[in-house]
Design brief:
Elements (H helix, E strand, L loop, with lengths): L1 H24 L21 E4 L2 H13 L4 E6 L5 H18 L1 H6 E11 L2 E10 L3 H5 L2 E3 L5 H10 L4 E6 L6 H15 L9 E5 L7 E5 L83
Parallel strand pairs: 1-2, 5-6
Antiparallel strand pairs: 2-4, 3-4, 6-8, 7-8
């Protein structure tokens, strides 16, 4: 009996050891494959596909997010060249003017299409007014209440600009932006510095992205223009430089000279110049006739 118990104990110990080893030998394997979205052509690397207007908009936004300057699109289920041209024009305008990232980053979008067998092939070119680094530096915020902490972190990091993609704006979003900036500038003793510049994309009423320029350029010299005390154009003094009054209360011209009619007449020029007045001719005395004298 004792022998059986010892054998059972040994068997149980062996089973426990085997279970532990199996746990140690377990491995999890995974494989990684390139992501294949419905927007990409499977057989053509770097080529996007679209079947309607919204697909084209999504393709363009995908390219903007990657800061791609050139790309190729394949459009399916379009019936004519006119339908393709109209869709491309409207989609490009929507991306550049109505989406936050497009309005913030894109300078222009050009497209040209060629009919192929079963689809239209479109060459896309995108010009940017923001760099790839600026696009990658855009941060996300759920509401304007987060802007104060984001601005403070940007100042602490020595950044000169901050771009925030907004998840929610609300009716008082603009007021909250101004309050956050005013509070932070006062706390950091920046009230006497040049005001920060705020840009809203795509529009101020309901922006999806807000840009802060924390180190804007200084205004040009002479702006705003200094006020002039004179009443004439460009501050000229109508009374002349000296502003002295001449005779009879007349204003002296520039340089304080008297009017011409008050000057002394100049001497007549010499006859050699030929500019003097003509001399009056004096008639000669008649000659006495011969033999008219008295006889001795």
């Amino acid at each position: 009996m004792g022998r059986k118990l010892s054998e059972l104990a040994a068997l149980a110990l062996a089973l426990c050891l085997l279970t532990g080893c199996s746990a140690l030998l377990e491995r999890t394997y995974s494989t990684a494959e390139p992501h294949s979205s419905k927007f990409w052509e499977s057989e053509a690397a770097g080529t996007l596909r679209a079947e309607n207007h919204q697909d084209v908009v999504n393709d363009l936004l995908l390219l903007v997010g990657q800061h791609r300057e050139t790309a190729t699109l394949r459009l399916y289920d379009f019936k004519s060249d006119l339908a393709v041209a109209d869709t491309l024009e409207k989609a490009a305008a929507e991306v550049q003017q109505e989406t936050p990232m497009g309005a913030y980053a894109v300078e222009f979008i050009t497209t040209s299409s060629h009919a192929q067998r079963g689809y239209y092939e479109v060459a896309v070119r995108i010009g940017y007014r923001r760099t790839l680094e600026q696009l990658q530096a855009v941060v996300n915020a759920t509401s304007p209440e987060a802007l104060y902490s984001l601005l403070a972190a940007a100042l602490d990091g020595g950044k000169t600009e901050l771009a925030v993609r907004m998840g929610y704006w609300g009716e008082n979003g603009g007021t909250r932006v101004e309050e956050a900036m005013a509070q932070l500038r006062e706390e950091r003793e920046l009230t006497e510095t040049i005001p920060w510049v705020v840009n809203y994309y795509p529009e101020e009423a309901d922006p999806g992205l807000v840009e802060f320029l924390l180190d804007p350029p200084e205004p040009e010299e002479g702006w705003p223009p200094e006020e002039s005390g004179g009443e004439g154009e460009e501050g000229e003094n109508p009374a002349g430089e000296d502003g002295e009054e001449g005779e009879n209360g007349e204003k002296a011209p520039e340089g304080g000279e008297a009017p011409e009619d008050a000057k002394e007449p100049e001497e007549n020029p010499s006859p050699e110049d030929g500019a003097g007045p003509e001399e009056e001719s004096v008639p000669a005395a008649p000659a006495e006739p011969e033999g008219s004298g008295e006889a001795d």
